[in-house]
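Bug #77: duplicate submission created two jobs. Keeping one. Sequence:
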Amino acid sequence: MEEPSVVRRIIPTSIVVLILLSQTGCLFADDDPNLSIYDIQYTTDLAGDSPYKDQIVDCLGGIVTHKFRGGYPKLTLYDPCRSDCWGGIQVKDWTSPPDMFDSVQIGDWVSFENVLVEESRGNTILRYQSGNSPEFTVVSTGNPMPTPLRVDLGEITSPREGPPYDWYVEDHRAEKYEHMWLRVEKIIVTRMDLGKADDNYVLQSFEYPSDPNRSCWAADYMNADKIGDYHPYVELGSRFCAVEGILEQYTKISSGWDYYQLLTITTDDFIVGQMADFDDDCDVDLLDFGLFAAHWLEDGCKDPNWCGGADLNQNSYVDPPDLETFSENWLSK
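Kept job's structure:
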């Protein structure tokens, strides 16, 4: 077997400044022959195929948001210059050794040379293949993780079920969010054991419980904290103020699958609730203040009710320190 090309370079700071603005990477030379993630991902093709499909390219890259070490090591990159859409991509190593990207850390900005643009199961990926003499460059380290893009459930909606064990999305509007870090809010788990591997679950809006367009599919197979197929938080009826993750497409029409799934990575991707949200609607507003005021100066608060939750510091009294805590969370979502 041909030995893979393994190149990891650290560029001097002076050159880094010419390539990208510190921490954001949003300054690129107009005549730079390298392609951005946006250049590679953006498409008007209804099938979602990259205009550079099957071509060898150099990519300016992005911030590493996730890395997977296994039979096929892979990285997920996010370009914060395109924080609205078309800013994510996956790099997959199809060569040995399996520790190809071990030197790369979450938060590194990594660029690539001589990688093949490939469509795999509906996803545009950069294939790191030894025969093409690929290289990767750690352009900068310690970049802050991009803020997850908040999307409406209707933008990454659940597939429709056909014959048993067949699921198809009605359109591919979610294509522009492929491999981006997303956030959906105010959801509840309504179904489980779905999809190709029986490990998908439905996140349904609890504000619109009967609207099939207000739901999406999620999965935990990349979650470092999962037990079995699911994270321990995921059960029928589990309610979350938000869930964050990386969007992936899974398409194999011949087998009856064509859907998008939001992939959680750690426990932190599940936002269960927040302090001072007494009516459990995932925000802190006048309704919560009314519930708080109803217990003002009440004493004798104890577990498990703590005076309707108004005793925020659980010192048996609803007093000024609790009001201060409530004020700190005012209008938070």
